[in-house]
Amino acid sequence: MTPDRLARLPKAELHCHLEGTASPALVQRQAARHGVDVSDILADGAYRRGDFQTFLRAYDRASALFRTEEDYAELTRTYLAAIAAEGAFHAELFVSPDHARAAGLAPRTYIGAVAAGAARAEADHGIVCRLIVVGVRHFGVAAVEAAARFAAEPGLPRVSGFGLAGDETVGRPADFARAFAIAGEAGLGLTAHAGEFAGPDAVRETLDALKPSRLGHGVRAVEDRELLRRIAAEGVVLEVCPGSNLALGVYPSPAAHPLRRLVEAGCRVTVNSDDPPFFATSLAAEYAFARDRQGLAESVLAGFTRTAIEAAFVDKDTRRMLE
Ligand code: ADE
Ligand code: ZN
């Protein structure tokens, strides 16, 4: 496929953290506005590179600079406009009531603002957007259950899913079973970060205990052939984020990334940007990675988009409209 054809390929994104879309320039502006020194997280107009813990701290520090409804509406609108320009027609954004509360915004107000930004982008660019409320694992079981109860409240605009994010090495998957039961009973789609840093056992336990239809990352499942067979057989969809994995050192080089092996094992795969400016990536760059660094064909890339729509947390009518 020529670069031109890749630009025109229809794309969809299932795994992107809203606060993780803030560009370094925007974070710098917000920091100046609020009199905050961000030299520990930014250098030379880019996010400083580091390990996962360093990233999570930088993410928290950047998130705390978004404090008003206007901030969140604009962050949402800007990101959706950017990926629409790359060919995306559907996106699901992770939203974190805990981060909003820490920044001084009530969760309902936060969701309302994000939904308003999404509505603007939908009107301007035709991109459909849904929101997935996340609980942050290293904030503790009680916080994740509170996030699930919040997500299950009726009348939250555009909220169609619940997810588990944060530091996968904290706690056991079963600790979060009650949160997932609350969200599942409310009819929300379920996804959990697993197999990003922790190995196949954590992926298996996550599938058993939380029963998500999708896994955030899931890439380390590649280390266990039996688990790969299970993921393929059960049709669990993997939200693969190669740029994130490479930036955070999960794999030492593009060639070492298991994207292609997951596809060849028959897993249902999508590609996603996770926290794009933190990892110097974009949704289009992830599709380009699949083609240029993993040698995957145009038909496989088109299949990523098809799989994302099949696995999207949308109602029947919306899915039909997206197909
Ligand atoms: N929160 C934001 N980005 C994340 C990631 N890559 N893994 C876990 N939690 C996150
Ligand atoms: Zn993520």
UniProtKB/TrEMBL annotation:
Cofactor remark from the record: Binds 1 zinc ion per subunit.
Top-rank taxon, per record: Bacteria
Site residues, Important for catalytic activity: H217
GO biological process: adenine catabolic process; hypoxanthine salvage; nucleotide metabolic process
Enzyme Commission no: 3.5.4.2
Keywords linked to the UniProt accession: Hydrolase, Metal-binding, Nucleotide metabolism, Zinc
Span of domain Adenosine deaminase: 10-323
Residues forming the catalytic site: E196
Reactions catalysed according to its record: adenine + H2O + H(+) = hypoxanthine + NH4(+)
Residues at which Zn(2+) binds: H15, H17, H193, D274
GO molecular function: adenine deaminase activity; zinc ion binding
Membership in a protein family: Belongs to the metallo-dependent hydrolases superfamily. Adenosine and AMP deaminases family. Adenine deaminase type 2 subfamily.
NCBIfam families associated with the record: aden_deam, PRK09358.1-3
Purpose of the protein: Catalyzes the hydrolytic deamination of adenine to hypoxanthine. Plays an important role in the purine salvage pathway and in nitrogen catabolism.
Protein's name in the database: Adenine deaminase
